[in-house]
Amino acid sequence: MTTLDLPRPSFSHRTSRWISRNLIRIYAGLAFIYLFIPVAYTFVFSFNNSGKSNLVWQGFTLDNWRNPCGAPQVCTAVVNSLQIGLISTVLATILGTMIAFAIGRHKFKGRSTTNLLIFLPMATPEVVLGASLLAMFLNLRINPGFWTIVIAHVMFCISFVVVTVKARIASLDPKLEQAAMDLYANERETFRYVTLPLVMPGIAGAALLAFSLSFDDFIITNFNSGIESTFPKFVYVSAARGIPAQANVIGSAMFFIALIIVIVGQAASRRRSRK
Amino acid sequence: MAGQKVAQDTGDLVLNRVSKLYGDFRAVDDLSLTIPDGSFFALLGPSGCGKTTTLRMIAGLEEPTSGTINIGDTDITTQKPYRRNVNTVFQNYALFPHLTIFENVAFGLRRRGIKDVKVEVESALALVELGHLAERKPSQLSGGQQQRIAVARAIVNKPEVLLLDEPLGALDLKLRRQMQIELKRIQTEVGITFIHVTHDQEEAMTMADTIAVMNQGKIEQLGSATELYESPKTAFVANFLGQCNLIKAKVQSRSGGKAVVSAKGLNFEIPLARVSTDSDSILMGIRPEKLRLDDSGTNSIKECVVTDRSFVGTSTQYLVRTPWDLELVVFEQNDEGLHDLRVGDKVSLEWDPEHTFGLDGSQDVNAGADLDDDE
User: Fold this and answer.
1) Neighbour-count burial for B195-233, b at 16+ CB within 10 Å, e otherwise
2) DSSP B374
3) Which of B59, B82, B91 sits opposite A184 (nearest CB)?
4) Amino acid A71: pLDDT
5) pLDDT at residue A3 above 60?
6) Can you tell me the distance from the alpha carbon of A18 to that of A25, in angstroms, rounded to the nearest whole number?
7) Contact (Cβ atoms closer than 8 angstroms) between residue B283 and residue B359
8) Chain A nearest CA to B88, separation (Å)
9) pLDDT tens, B320-360?
10) Residue B284's closest CA among B326, B325, B222?
11) Which of A100, A253, A232 is nearest to A153 (CA)?
12) Buried b vs exposed e over A130-149: b needs ≥16 C-beta within 10 Å?
């Protein structure tokens, strides 16, 4: 190109060239703003000196953070949610991992049907699942409460665990297990020292997913909880008369805890691969 | 050194009438084979010839449909892979990605309940000259290094038989040549029986004491590299190991230690000892480097035409068409006797009767040709 003869590009020229060069960055920036405005809003209003209703900014305070259990029942609800989340996660992860191994590793009659049926709960609307479960519990004369929530959560988490773990198992090179057997490891040792460690990242991911699904769930929980309260249910119920700022504190805290877990996990895996 | 888990007798590996069927497909067909203790043995053949299946049956990863496999006096036919003192270097190595190099090599020792593995692991790593990488993970190693770790991981267990499943297939040419020499050195040093599966005839010839050429589940021929190359017994072996010119001919007479055969009105001589059939219809074989561009001598074809010429450094390769339109390959050394012919030049061919061999004429002339590069 003979750039020497060309006149200096005009201002509008330069602007449009700058935009076309940075379009992806601009788009990414806008997308992140869109994604994080609600989080930022929640975080900012956790410092609101709100009193009863947390809708209007009324001045900065740290009181909500100093006393997160300040609002009535909020911490009972959070503790319930954590307990339900942990129990459901453990049960769903164990059961789902076993199903994933059965489907991923063994040929049996009805395997493809099982595969399909595992997907169904994910495709079914949550309201329908919640209402059906409630009807079932009532027919069985079981009072809805803590354990009916756990049963419901384990049920809908299993599908997600199976899908996540199965993907990991499918990507596992069968030669590695053959190599272990070739190197004097019997079936049990091969599973313990080769198969399980290699599938573990999938299982861990599935457990995190199950916990967040359980902790988050409102629709199915609301049907099957009776008088038991969970954090999402607490927020929904209080919305009618004004959500306390403590809910924002707990929501923000959950966000930052999740963020820290992700960052620590990333750093650990990077350190492991560099070592 | 081994625990109670593993049998410890040594001896020849004997496959007796082993077959493996997948449905109706005979992957290995009534194969009998004795591999002497301490030898470097190659199973050579095109993909799908049954060589890998044979190897996996020796490793215990497949069970034969019929037949038996013995090491010395022990029948290992149905023994679990972790019970037999046989180790495998897998194609693409199959190193455990979640373990360090040290733990990869120590894996077999630990599974046999050996507590103090340090000395043995370090000496195995020293054998492949990679002791300094012990704390790395497999993904941080190059292909050639991973390959050597795979060898160390198998050899550290001092197996009676080491199986190598196309272990050099993933390496580039230069590294492959280097590893061939390396493996040969290691085998001489440790004295373990090596069974090397490959589709690369050059690799088999470079490394192995004895080569079994396999085709369609059977062994076509077994022998040293020289025997297989100079005296192939089938058209498949002739074509699969190097290049070969095969000419259809009829036997006119067999007397005085030589056979006289005729093809297209020309007579040729073959030493009787090198004719491996009693049939009158034979294939006369001559290797390309044995053909000379001259017209004296007992065996010669006159009035041929050069149809192609390629210079490959140490030699020039010609395609020469006979008067009856058969194309023959001729290699001529690039030394002072070089003819330097061009395409279209008239030429005569001649060769020493001693360099001719005769095969059964009922075979496909092209069997085994152009098979060695597909995988």
Assistant:
1) bbbbbbbebbbbbbebbbbbbebebbbbbebeebbebbb
2) -
3) B82
4) 80
5) no
6) 11
7) yes
8) 7
9) 999 988 999 999 888 877 777 888 889 999 999 999 999 99
10) B326
11) A232
12) beebbeebeeeeeebeeebb
Average pLDDT over residues B95-122: 94
| Cα-based distances in Å from B134 to A269, B106, B126 | 20, 11, 10
**A171/A163 Cα distance (integer angstroms):** 13
Helix (H) or strand (E) holding B31: strand B25-35
User: Which residues of chain A does B112 touch, with a Cβ-Cβ cutoff of 8 Å?
Assistant: 184
User: Nearest CA to CA, how far is A270 from chain B (Å)?
Assistant: 13
Q: What phi and psi values does residue B327 have, to the nearest 5 degrees?
A: -95, 130
The pLDDT tens digits for B238-295 are: 999 989 999 999 999 998 888 999 998 889 999 999 998 888 899 999 999 999 888 7
Q: In order of start, what are the domains of chain A with their CATH numbers?
A: 12-65 (no CATH), 72-243 (1.10.3720.10)
List, by residue range, all CATH 3.40.50.300 domains of chain B.
13-230
CB-based contact (8 Å) between A22 and chain B?
no
Band of the pLDDT at A63, cuts 50, 70, 90?
A: confident
- Fold of the domain spanning B243-360: OB fold (Dihydrolipoamide Acetyltransferase, E2P) (2.40.50)
State residue B42's pLDDT score: 95
pLDDT digit string, tens, across residues A200-235: 999 999 999 999 999 999 999 999 998 899 999 999
Q: In this predicted model, what pLDDT tens digit does every residue of A119-165 receive, in sequence order?
A: 888 889 999 999 999 999 999 999 999 999 999 999 999 999 999 99
H helical segments located in chain B: 51-59, 101-111, 118-127, 143-155, 173-190, 201-207, 225-230, 235-240
Interface contact A203, partner B, CB < 8 A: no
Which stretch, A7-21, B96-110, B181-195, has highest mean pLDDT?
A: B96-110
Assigned token pair, B323 = 């008067």
Interface contact A179, partner B, CB < 8 A: yes
Show the tokens assigned to A272: 């492991």
- Name the strands in the sheet holding B258-263, side by side, starting at the edge strand that comes first in the sequence: B266-271, B258-263, B245-255, B281-286, B356-360
For tokens 């590695």, the residue is A176
Q: How far apart are CA A36 and CA A29, in angstroms?
A: 11
Q: Tell which residue, A208, A186, A86, has the closest CA to residue A146.
A: A86
Summary mean pLDDT of chain B: 89
ipTM score here?
Answer: 0.82
Contacts of A110 (CB under 8 A, 6+ apart): none
Query: Which tokens go with B59?
Result: 């490793």
Tell me how close the Cα of A48 comes to any Cα of chain B, in angstroms: 48
Structure tokens at A180: 């272990």
Find tokens 């997948």 and name the residue: B22
Query: How high does pLDDT run on average in chain A?
Result: 89
Q: What is the DSSP string of B50-67?
A: SHHHHHHHHHTSS--SEE
Is 2.120.10.30 the CATH number for B13-230?
A: no
Specify the domain boundaries for CATH 2.40.50.140 within chain B: 243-360
Reported pTM: 0.80
